[in-house]
Amino acid sequence: MPGSLEPLDLGVQIPYHFRCPISLELMRDPVIVGTGQTYDRSSIESWAATGNTTCPVTRLPLTDFTLIPNHTLRRLIQEWCVANRSYGVERIPTPKQPADPVMVRSLLNQAASESNSRHARLSALRRLRGLARDSDKNRSVISTHNAREVLLAVLFSETNSNSSELNHESLAVLSSFQLSESECLLVSSDPDRISYLISLLSHSSIDVRVNSASLLENVVAGTRSPEHRAEISNRDEIFDRIVGILNYPLTYPRAMKVGIKALFALCLVKQHRHKAVAAGAVEALIDRLPDFEKCDAERALATIELLCRIPQGCTAFASHALIVPLLVKIILKISDRATEYAAGALLSLCSAAERLQREAVAAGVLTQLLLLVQSDCTERAKRKAQMLLKLLRDSWPEQSIRNSDDFACSDVVPF
Question: What is the phi/psi pair of residue 280, to 5°?
Answer without folding.
Answer: 95, 20
